[in-house]
UniProtKB/TrEMBL annotation:
<protein>
    <submittedName>
        <fullName>Uncharacterized conserved protein YbbK, DUF523 family</fullName>
    </submittedName>
</protein>
<dbReference type="InterPro" id="IPR007553">
    <property type="entry name" value="2-thiour_desulf"/>
</dbReference>
<dbReference type="Pfam" id="PF04463">
    <property type="entry name" value="2-thiour_desulf"/>
</dbReference>
């Protein structure tokens, strides 16, 4: 199969039907599943790649956004107060490595996630309040010239 004219993408693995969300569920997106079947997209879960289990406690960025986490100015904290920042950074680095290995120049990632959010994340209070910002993986991918968009932009 020659996909030379198609832009290779990495996508949030939960879109493929992989039950890797923090709550052990998936977010199936038929269009993305079709892209994977055609070899146009590679599923990744940065949180699992960073060593976190599934299911796991929900986590949010406290004190900024993904950019701030990468710069050491904010942390990723789970709902019990555990600092999971290093796992989120490690997972972002692994997702970037996957993008580089596969030649991916775009990513379609799960909005509102502390890893994958491209425009909106939760505000760190665990009260369901959202704010403008991006997750750790999105921030790292963008720093390396990879275009990131959410499933809502499909």
């Amino acid at each position: 199969m020659d996909n030379s004219k198609e832009t290779k993408k990495i996508v949030s693995a939960c879109f493929a039907g992989i039950e890797c969300r923090y709550d052990g569920r998936a977010n199936r997106v038929t269009k993305i599943q079709e892209m994977i079947k055609k070899g146009e997209a590679i599923p990744v879960c940065p949180e699992q790649l960073g060593g976190l289990s599934t299911p796991r406690l929900p986590a949010q960025i406290v004190g900024g956004s993904g950019e701030d986490v990468l710069d050491g100015k904010a942390k990723v904290i789970d709902q019990a107060g555990n600092d999971v920042t290093e796992a989120f950074i490690r997972g972002a680095e692994q997702a970037l490595q996957m993008a580089k290995l596969t030649g991916a120049t775009e990513a379609i990632l799960k909005e509102r996630s502390p890893s994958c959010g491209s425009c909106v994340i939760y505000d760190g209070t665990f009260e369901g309040t959202k704010k403008a910002g991006q997750g750790v993986t999105t921030a790292l991918l963008k720093r390396h010239g990879i275009r990131v968009k959410s499933e809502e932009e499909l």
